[in-house]
Amino acid sequence: MSDVRDLVILGSGPAGLTAAIYTARASLDPLVIEGEPSSTGDQPGGQLMLTTEVENFPGFPHGIMGPELMMNFRQQAERFGAVLKTEKASKVDLSQRPFGVWVGDPDAIEPTYLAKTLIVATGATSLMLDLPGEQRLLGHGVSTCATCDGFFFRDHDIAVVGGGDSALEEATFLTRFARSVTIIHRRDELRGSRIMQDRAFANPKISFLWNSQVVDVIGDQAVQSIEVENVQTKARSTLAVTGLFVAIGHRPNTDLFVGQLDMKENGYLVTETPSTRTNVDGVFACGDVQDDTYRQAITASGSGCAAAIDAERWLEAQE
Fold first, then answer.
1. Potential cystine with 192: which of 3, 74, 196, 216 (Cβ 3.0-4.6 Å)?
2. Any catalytic annotation for residue 198?
């Protein structure tokens, strides 16, 4: 078991690594448990590791590849002394201080790390369709973020999967760029709010495929078309689109904290506005794990900065 550290950061996306940069510069010697690669997108670097060109992060007028941006974050944190471990936390104990963090066997008697403060930046995972070509073409026509990638589909025909507010917001936003947007929904009516439905129905660029689901994504290097099945008749058809936006929701990575940290009904962590404090003194949360509104790299970075400052001030108050 390690000695008690001032700070452990769980997660290495924009929020976690920004927190690491700030706390390392404050001489808090942060340990970042960055996660391990997985097929679900829960991996070191967060969701930006699954994107291609990022054009909306300030400071990069010509854009930057998502993995390259996260490598820059990582190198900057390490430059100031942050220690990164490519491990996945398997259990945390927030019932007493110092807090215990386990990696590997969650049934081990002793925690792997002990920490006076903890910053939770475990992010969220986009819910996917689990299709064979989906992961392969993620970032090459398949996307989970219209705000991030819509610009690349100017004058394209694209499709959006989903029927809630997220799907309707994505589709409406995408009409700024696309020639046409087809919303594909498993049911014969939408689940989104009435105002969002009215906007979508009134938009001449938006059409609907009801009682339908995507069963295949077709393309070698990029999306060329998708295969759609009617859930009632089982009849299949091919839709010629070059973009597929999956908008069926996100799942915050909060399983470790069930019963320990307060959560909203949708599973996102609750923080005390305008801070990043959770209901457990000395535990702070930042990024997509507590943000179900914006879900952008730049807002995650901003909240990571806030969590770092909150943690530093908390430690100072304990001395």
1. 196
2. no
